[in-house]
Amino acid sequence: MNEKELRLETKCYDAVDYGYLYGLNQKIPDEDFKKVKKYMRDFRRKDFADGIIKVTGRPEGYRCLEEDVPKVEKILGITNTLEKRQNKIKKAFSDPDEKRKLKDQSLNWLITLFKRGGTRPEQKLSRLVIHSTKIYDPEDSYKNGRKDGDGSLFIYTPHGMWYIINNSKEGSDKSINNVESIDGGAIGYRLMYDDNIDTLIRIYTEENEYSGDKLY
Question: How many CB atoms lie within 10 A of CB 69?
Answer without folding.
Answer: 20
